[in-house]
Amino acid sequence: MVQVIIGGRRDVKVSVLFSVLLVFAVSVIPISVHAGGWVSVHVTGLLPTDTTCIISSPSSPSVIAPGSAACAIQVGTGVANGGFIIGVALPGSYVIQVTGNQGDFAQTLLSVG
């Protein structure tokens, strides 16, 4: 399960839950964030043999500000934490993907307003 927490204003926190695509189950709560906002990512359910991970957007790489994505795995657990800053992107929905070095990955939609 992957949880994305969006925090733009201090009083607004929204979560999105989605599952690793090995199961093909995706649960999404509608979310919206603006350019410059921070997105925090927590992942469980990746392969325990993963040692590294990356956060990307297959639908539009510019939605993630260059150099802002960071992802770290607790080796042997399949748990990863990271985040990124929303870059320059037109309003719309974008796929956000977390990929383990063994090829496993999870995706969700992120709404940029």
Write up what this structure looks like.
By secondary structure, the chain is mainly β. It has a single domain, classed as Sandwich (Immunoglobulin-like), CATH 2.60.40. Helices cover 0% and strands 44% of the residues. It is built from no helices and eight strands. It has strands spanning 2-7, 14-18, 38-43, 53-56, 70-74, 79-85, 92-100, 105-112. Strands 2-1-3-6-5 form a five-stranded antiparallel sheet, with no helix packed on it. The protein is elongated, with a radius of gyration of 13 Å.
Distinctive features:
113 residues; mainly beta; five-stranded antiparallel sheet; three-stranded antiparallel sheet; 8 strands; elongated
